[in-house]
Amino acid sequence: MGRAFVLSLAKEGGLVALSDIPTREKEGQEVVSHVEAMGGKSIWVPLDVTKEEAWKAAVSDGVLGVLANNAGIVTPYDATAVQPEQISLAEFHKSTSIMIDGALLGHKEWSSIVNISAKAGMVGGVGTLGYGTSKWALRGSTKYMAGTLPAAGIRARVNSVLGLVDQNSDDVIGEMCNALANMNYLKRSAGPEKVANLVVYLASDGSSFSTGSEFWWMEGGNDSASCR
Ligand SMILES: NC(=O)c1ccc[n+]([C@@H]2O[C@H](COP(=O)([O-])OP(=O)(O)OC[C@H]3O[C@@H](n4cnc5c(N)ncnc54)[C@H](O)[C@@H]3O)[C@@H](O)[C@H]2O)c1
Q1: 10 part of a folded domain
Q2: What angle do CA 200, 203, 205 make, to 5 degrees?
Q3: pTM, entire model
Q4: Fewer CB within 10 A of the terminal residue: the chain, N end or C end?
Q5: Ligand 1 site residues, Cβ closer than 6 angstroms
Q6: 224 domain residue, yes or no
């Protein structure tokens, strides 16, 4: 999804910094090359979102525009239905450190912050304990940061995006997305570009009065079709 965000934001002009964990540099540089081939401007900035020093280094030039907090993981622990005695704080913290701590560390002097949550942050379920808890918390932090940053004199808008279904892979995630797509009115999944369109809107002046808001998106009517 991050790739689609970078390509769509780059089409709007300006410089798009693309971040991921340092070991993903090759993939990151490929996206940068793609943007340059389109005539756009992009740079690779390695960033492990769980590390405060890495955030400081990543934003060291002091020019902060728009941030999309997109980093996320589903761990094997999350994919299973853990019994109470199997709950592992260390495994749980793998999810929360990226999706809660990581986003929290990123809440700085940006003009617009877009937190990528998920439907797992709107409902409960079996398994996905760390993932779902993190996405619920991300929605909560969106609401509080939308008030906290301006109260501290920082002109930042903070919104969150929820309920995405965008994968067509052959793995278990792809199967789950297909099942969800079959439950919606349009009977198909959205591609990442659809989500990227929303990120571009939330980054723009066109959404300048939206803050602390949640955008339910990429559902193809799933919500209206009473699947929650
Ligand atoms: N794909 C979907 O249908 C869907 C649905 C709901 C929500 N989301 C959310 O959208 C976001 C993107 O999902 P995706 O499907 O593109 O997943 P993805 O796995 O392709 O991308 C997630 C990226 O986060 C990066 N990442 C992991 N840990 C990191 C860290 N510590 N620091 C920096 N980067 C880190 C990964 O390397 C990866 O490139 C996630 O937050 C996910 O929870 C996706």
Answers
A1: yes
A2: 110
A3: 0.93
A4: C
A5: 1-2, 20-21, 24, 47-50, 70-73, 98, 102, 116, 118, 164-167, 177
A6: no
